[in-house]
Amino acid sequence: MAEDQPKNARQGRVLGWLNPNGPRRWGTSPDDFSEAAAVETVRRAGALFGEGRYFGVDVQGWEHLPASPVLFVANHSGGTTIPDMWGLMVGWYTRFPKGRPLHALAHEMVLATEVTGAYFSERGCVSANREQGLAVLAEWKRDLLVMPGGDLDTWRPWKDRYKVQFAGRKGYAWLALKAGVPIVPIAHAGAHSTLVVLSDGQKIAKAFKLPELFRASIWPVHLSLPWGLAVGPLPHLPLPAHLRYRFGPPIAPTEVVAPGEDPSPEAILALDEAVRAQMQRQLDALREESSRVSRLARLASRARRGA
Predict the structure, then answer these.
(1) How far does Cα 37 stand from its chain's mean position?
(2) Which DSSP category does 237 fall into?
(3) Following DSSP, what letter does each residue of 225-251 receive, concatenated?
(4) Burial of 207 per CB tally in 10 Å (0-12, 13-18, 19+)
(5) Angle at the Cα of 279 (from 277 to 283), degrees rounded to 5?
(6) 148: helix, coil or strand?
């Protein structure tokens, strides 16, 4: 999460070379967002996402949502193709086609080019730093989505697909406390079934100095289409999957922060622990749900063979 970085380290070295005068400023104004573009994107995505489609989308827990502004904190899954983000966008703008924009903090590479920067900022992505996140919540009074685990989360190994992986990043807790807004955790399962991640490749990334060059902590090894065995964060052709999202009950800020002051380390730590604990409970429930469905499918198969 970029707001955990000092100001002079927010760009990876490669982007610093490409943008010596600083990054382009896509995703820094509420006017960058286009409700019409977001809804049209969801309409087009409906060919692939939704009930009975290539990617099933199952969203539960809408009743937990307080009024805007809210900080939504989600786990991240599914590699560079980010099917979890597209599925959540479909669910959100199907539920709220008007009047409730959802902004998301995006990695600098997403907003670094004319094509991707313009496209994703029009659909709600904003620069991933504390100042921008605070502007969305406190000034624009809009909802904000943060995926603290970032690349480490979306490329976590298959065996850890039901584990919270925030990599010690707590900037989102600072943001919620500073803005005085509740956090609603979103647990997701399904996108990790579109490929099989064997290793996140953190040691490889460190050896090639990727954290300094691209602000990337991973160089994953995975089984995916069309590559077969692949090394690196290559976009893949995702296998069909059932994408499940669970909004949890809101977690209120536990400390009132005076203007000009920062939240206390104790409050940040406590809020982070509460969010991760609730999200892990939701992921455990999703894992149990998957196991139950698998058991029923096996029983049904045996019954058909015995008939």
Answers:
(1) 20
(2) B
(3) BTTEEEESS---BPPPEEEEEEEPPPB
(4) exposed
(5) 115
(6) coil
CATH of the domain at 261: 3.40.1130
pLDDT higher at 23 or 183: 183
Q: What is the end-to-end Cα distance of the chain in Å, rounded?
A: 55
pLDDT over threshold 80, residue 238 = yes
Q: Coil, helix or strand for 157? A: coil
Helices (H), 2-109: 13-18, 35-45, 83-95
Whether the pTM exceeds 0.85: the reply is: yes
Parent domain of 243? 2-306
Paired tokens of 103: 């902004």
Number of structural domains the chain divides into: 1
Alpha helices in the chain (DSSP H): 13-18, 35-45, 83-95, 114-122, 130-134, 150-154, 171-179, 202-207, 210-214, 265-306
Whether residue 148 has a cis bond before it, omega within 30° of 0: no
